[in-house]
Amino acid sequence: MLPSGEQPTPTFLMPVKGAQPNSFNFQCSRRDCLSEDLHSFELSIAMAYGTNHSYPAPNNVEEQPAPAVIDDDAVAALDVAARSPRMDNDILSSAPARDIRSSASELIEMLEDIDLQKMLRKQGLIGRFTGAAVEARLGFELASHRVADVFRQLSRAAQAGGRIRGILDRTRLELIDEQARLAGVIGDAKKLLISRSSGSDLALVARFERRLANIMAIEAANTLTIQQIELSAGVLASLLDRFTDIETLLLPLWQRNALAIIHGEAITPRSSVVTAFLDAHSNLIGFLKKVRQE
Length: 294
Hints:
Structural class: mainly alpha
């Protein structure tokens, strides 16, 4: 117990002889005075430097007298703790979901311009005599090739989307780890601010508080970023799943039926080849519209 009216001696950050480079070791002038807070803050700052050294507990180090004020070293420690890993530039410079929707819209417009019934009407005797039948078949064949070209564009957008999705997943995990680190730094810094503000230079205290506010702002921004990444990754996953259905089933089915139309003879509007193509054509357009609306 201290005599009446005497205040306990607060502690401060002090370097220890033999400390590892780019790390901080702290001790308390009294073992019963904030030793656990200082050691916790030490570990948080060590994490800010990215070091993996083992740090002795305050009870295991030689005690040294420490001033009970906030100084430049405390502010510098928070500056180090505020450093966050950089985000991948690809997340900021690309929008694969938008590119996938755009390519899907272009493909829908092209498919809707294909009029099989009009081509079949020109396959009669007059059309064969005037050459309109051949012209109509060539137009249908060219339209089929253009569909394949636009689909390759959609495929490239989907490949980019798959790569970005991997980056989003990795970034989300990194930010979650970063949030845990920042939470520890914020908690320790608040405790130290309370214990050392009295008697400290007001300008240094204000600088310390600003640094702490900056770290808290980063933590809040990270929370929103994680939520947005989860939303974007979910939308992208749904788009890529629909693209897989188009790539593996719907488009190959459409192409095979289109090939049967191009090379078929004596095709009539009621033939099974025409019915199969129209069904595949309708299904492909319908699925692409779902992609556009995703």
